[in-house]
Design goal:
Length: about 150
């Protein structure tokens, strides 16, 4: 039997680890939110400037007794300007995904999450934020809602 959702929500802050690059919280509507501000980099180079920003969010809510569903959203924006012109790229996703990515930028000056730097790197893996959350929920008796094929072959 699943722990009542209200009791689960009260324990969510215990998932937060000051060493982790992400955090968990609860909305007033009773949704568990995992948020990761992956990168906010601005760099100035000898021939131009560049920027990169990436964030990720997972929202988890109950659908039935002992059953949860979740949705992931992510934003990624990059841009550059130099002597030959400039460009910008913006990507957005919403749904379910497994992602692993990393990057590095260097310049003569810049910032990473508002802190001065000449080089900044980032790495991102959805498993890092999902595994502790889903493990915690499973310990409380909550399972992911089965989709059509999960019901058919489960």
């Amino acid at each position: 039997m699943a722990t009542p959702w209200e009791q689960v929500l009260q324990q969510v802050p215990s998932l937060n680890n000051p060493q982790a690059p992400f955090s968990y919280s609860v909305t007033p509507e009773g949704v568990i939110v995992g948020f990761w501000d992956v990168a906010k980099i601005q760099m100035l180079g000898l021939t131009g400037a560049s920027s990169f920003s990436k964030d990720y969010r997972i929202d988890v809510r109950p659908t039935a007794d002992g059953e949860i569903e979740y949705v992931e959203t992510g934003n990624e924006t990059s841009g550059s300007i130099g002597a030959t012109g400039g460009g910008m790229k913006k990507e957005f996703f919403k749904g379910k995904s497994t992602q692993k990515s990393f990057g590095f930028q260097a310049g003569i000056g810049g910032t990473s999450h508002g802190e001065p730097t000449t080089a900044a790197g980032w790495s991102f893996d959805t498993d890092q934020i999902k595994k502790p959350l889903f493990g915690f929920l499973e310990q409380q008796g909550w399972q992911q809602k089965k989709g059509f094929f999960g019901k058919l072959f489960g």
